[in-house]
Structure formats: structure tokens, C-alpha cells
């Protein structure tokens, strides 16, 4: 199969992670106080997703090198 | 329409990005869909880990997620038995013992295996009932999604159906089974990333595991059970009256752990199809074992939210204000809204988009899984077998594509049917349960006893189905309000403490009847198959080298992997005893 599924997974989480990080940086603390117990969950979890996305893309690149 | 969740622009953006990727995967696979085999079976090209996650994900429809969270609230940690007693041992059995025959037989579907092992009528019985069942399951998925999106976001019923149907149609038409499998993997990660923060925030709110336990002790006592009934999985199983599930350990282990779980995980083509798409025998056997590792951790993702929800709701009834609370329904709570309400409560705009996307993704992959299984069974087991034999591969590829369109249209019709007559769906689901209940006995005898014959298998299945229906028609669960719950044959021979207990025992009766009937009828009839024909289909007639894995080091072999999975599951059971 000519599509390594790790690329779309990786890029999807890079994009969603980036959206959440940016929104987490510009949004005020009120929405976090109202919902997520004061935790800026968009920023924190966005960063986790960016790291995960980067690992997936990295693995796909390493896999492609082997073949 | 009034909506419960306030969906912002960022949330819609995340939904949009996800669906672009879903359609993009279909588009990228378009050029490799050149034959019926590539479209319907992925031409056996999928790596083991991808097949494994898809295997897990195909079962992880939204109804499963929502239902498990609901059960977590209703029954507490005993819900984990669906995973740690039910699913995992069955998945290990499939990978270690059954997969060599499924994969080695070169059958393209579960009904086709029945044809190779037994005869045409057994295949036909299974193929037709399965085809009807997948269409209705896909329709129910669509209906449930449209209902929920209407309630939460205020979307119109018709719009939800149109959008979900169109997206699933496009990505399957473009990329076939491979597209469905790849999107299931994507959905797996969406569920994990969408729900893990929910568990984190919920646990933080309730005061960690200790805080949760303490509140559930109080709740359990308030419901008239021993304090640990919501937080201890095994300690309250010596009598049905001791736990909210209303079962005792034997009915639970035999009914759920053995009959229902092995019946589903080892014979349902929807999941088995994912393993059959794997690229080698070893990858196919590893598929359910790889799936078992995340599967054993899923209770923390889907059951724990339910337990947190009921603990917080209990706290609210005792006077805590402003916190999370479940909506009431018929003197109890609307348990099906655990996940949607928690998403709305704990997630701000942004994460809310991710959480809702995860939910929508699982509804759609539930539909797609059913549609791809329907495709294959219809094309190979019905069309090729009974309508047009021996046509070119190109011909079957066209039929398969057309079947996809028809399958989705039928699902839409089923969704509208469910919307107008809710009872029809309940009745149908009941009938499917009767048909499925005895299946595992047929496979067990077929794979491990070479004397089992086609007549034995067919009549065993038939009688097992009748036994399931008869048991359900003659017994009732306590407090049954309608005939759909049982007792429709007039007499009430036994009253079960709960619906769950009745389900488990219906399965036990169906399995036992099918097992005994198949054995007796097989002994009274002669097999139509020679030993040579059964090579690779039955344990004792399959040469050892076909089952072995060459000289792979022990940690790469299937049996030690399976043993490790079982050992980890036992540890989990002991921790939450």
C-alpha cells in the first residue's frame, strides 16, 4: 500500500495541536474557570498532541528510510 | 432547536480539519483500488499493528463508548468484566487458536469459512442473517448519532444523516476496506486524545481515586448494597442480590465471559475481517493480541467517566451546588448522557471540538465498519454464490462499489425507520441476539472436531437460535414492563433479578443447545467432506508446520504474547478485586 498511515495521523495531530495551542494562548482564563477547573487544557493538551504528531511523522520517515 | 452544548468557531474548525483528513485518506488510496480483492479485502496487505488498532476500533462505535460509560455509572467497576473477563480472553483465543484456520483457509469472509468447513446451507444461513444485521446496525449508528447531535448541538435529524452518510460513502467508495481500516486507526487515536483529558479533569474534580472511592462507598450504601459494590469488581458476586448487575459469578463467567464474548470476538465478521486483511499469517494472529493491550486499558477511558459522573451526581444530591450532575430520567438518571454531559461540562471551546469530533468519528466508523463487512459478505457470499458465479474480477469490483452505495442507502432507510418506530429496532436487535448466541458452538466444534458435519452445524445453529428465543420468551427480568424484555410466550418459568442476568442465561442456553445438537446430529450423519478437503480448516487435520512460526525467538511468538496478555489481565482483575 502506498500510503503510510503514520503520516496522516501525525499531520492531523500536528494541525489540531497547533490550533489548540494558539487558541489556548489567546483565550482568556474565564472559559477555563467555567469549565476545566481553571486548567488551560487547550494549551497543555495541544502541546501533548504536537509532540505525539511529531513522533508519528518521525517514525514514518524512519520507516520509509528502511525500505 | 435548543442546544445543550455551546459549539464555537474553533470547535467547528477542528471538526472540519478531521473530516478533511478522513476524506483525504480515501483520496490517497484511490489509485490502489484496482481489483475486487483490493477493495473488499485490502488484498491482505495491512501491517499487524494497523490491523490490531482497527480490530479494536471497529468495535469501538459510539454506542459502545456511550453505553460503557452509562454502565459505569449504573453498575460501577463491575462493568470492567466486559473487558477483563469478556473481551480479552476471547481475543487471545482468536489469535492463538482460531486465526490459523481463518487465515490459512484463504476464506475471504466468515460465512465463506463455514462453506469450506461445512456446506452451502450453513454458509447461506450465516451470510443472510449477517448481511441484514450489518445494515440495521449501521442504520442504528446513524440514527443514534443524528439524535445526539440534535440534542447537543441542535442539528437537524436529516442534516446529520445526510452529512454522516455522505462522508462514509465517499471514503469507502474511494479507498474500500483499506480506507475504512485506516480511518478506524485515526479514530482510535481521536478517542484516546479526546477522552483522556476528560478522565483527568473528572478525577481531579472528584478528588482523585481516593475521593472517587469514598463518594461511591456512600452512593453504594444509599442504593442498598455493600459499600464496595461500585468499586470492587469481584467481591460482590456470590449472589445476584449483592450487586447492581444482578448476576452471580457463574452466570457472569459462563454467559458473558465464555458464550457472549467468544461468540462476538471470535465469529463476528465485522472484527475478524480486520485480521483477515493483515499481510501475513503472523500479522493476522497478532492482530487481536495487539488489540488486547489497549483494550485492557479502555475501562479507564470509558467506564471511569461513568463512575465519576455518578459520584459527583450523588454529591450534588447531598447539597453540593454548581458541580457536575447527571440529568434525571424516570426516577433515576439518564445514564446515556454521561459522556456528552461531561464533555459539555469540563471542556472549554477548543477541547470541546476535539471531544465531539472523537464522538462523531466513532459513530461514523461504526457505520463504515458495518458497511465494509456488508460489502464483502454480499459480494462474495450472496452475489457470487447465488446470483452470478464465475464473472471477472472487474465485474465483482463494480458490484462491490454498487453494494456500497446500496448499503448506505439502506442504512439511511433503517435510520428513518428507527426514528419512526423505535420498537422495531428493539425487536430486530433481539432477533439478532438469538441468531448470534449459538454461533460460537458451531465454530468450536468445526475447528476442533473433524467429525462435525454440515447437517450437524446447520441444524445445531437453527436449534440454538430457537432455544435462545424460547428461553427469552419463557423468562422475565424483574420489573419487566413490555414483552420485548421477555415472557412473550405466555408462561413465566423463571424471573431473573436483572435484564443482564437474563441475557447471560439466554446465551448459555443457546450455546449448550447448539453444542449438544451439533454433536448428536453429526454423529448420526456422515460428513460430506474428505480429510484432504478439511486440511487447514480443522485442528487435527492441519499439519504442525502450517501452525508453527519457524524459528522465531520466543518473544516474537504468538503463544508467549498471548500468555503475557492473559497475565496482565489477571493482574488488573486482582488489583480491582
CATH topology of the largest domain in chain B: Sodium/glucose cotransporter
Category by helix and strand content of chain B: mainly alpha
CATH architecture of the largest domain in chain B: Up-down Bundle
CATH class of the largest domain in chain B: Mainly Alpha
Total E-strand runs of chain B: 4
Q: What is the global morphology of chain B?
A: globular
The proportion of residues forming helix of chain A, as a percent range, comes to over 70%
For CATH, the homologous superfamily of the largest domain in chain B is named as Sodium/glucose cotransporter
Compute the number of structural domains of chain A: 1
Integer tally of domains of chain B: 2
- Write down the overall mean pLDDT of chain A: 90
Percentage of residues in DSSP E strands of chain B: under 5%
Compute the separation of the termini of chain B in Å: 46 Å
Main sheet of chain A, how many strands, which sense, barrel? none
Task: Give the low-confidence spans of chain B.
Answer: none
Number of helices of chain B: 23
Structural commentary:
The complex is a heterodimer of chains A (67) and B (577). Chain A has helices spanning 6-26, 30-34, 41-66. With 67 residues, chain A is mainly alpha-helical. Chain A starts with 5 loop residues before the first helix and ends with a helix. Chain B has two domains: 49-420, Sodium/glucose cotransporter; 422-542, no CATH class. Chain B is 73% helix and 2% strand. The interface between A and B is medium-sized, with 30 and 34 residues.
Topology:
The complex is a heterodimer of chains A (67) and B (577).
Chain A: H1 6-26, H2 30-34, H3 41-66
Chain B: H1 9-29, H2 36-41, H3 48-59, H4 62-75, H5 81-104, H6 110-117, H7 120-153, H8 157-206, H9 208-222, H10 249-267, H11 269-276, H12 281-302, H13 304-317, E1 328-329, E2 332-333, H14 338-346, H15 351-387, H16 393-420, H17 422-436, H18 439-448, H19 454-474, E3 475-477, E4 494-496, H20 499-524, H21 531-534, H22 544-547, H23 558-575
Parallel strand pairs in B: 3-4
Antiparallel strand pairs in B: 1-2
Helix pairs in contact in B: 1-8, 1-15, 3-8, 3-11, 3-12, 4-13, 5-10, 5-12, 5-23, 6-7, 7-8, 7-15, 7-16, 7-17, 7-19, 8-9, 8-13, 8-15, 8-16, 9-13, 10-18, 10-20, 11-15, 12-23, 15-16, 16-17, 17-19, 18-19, 18-20, 19-20
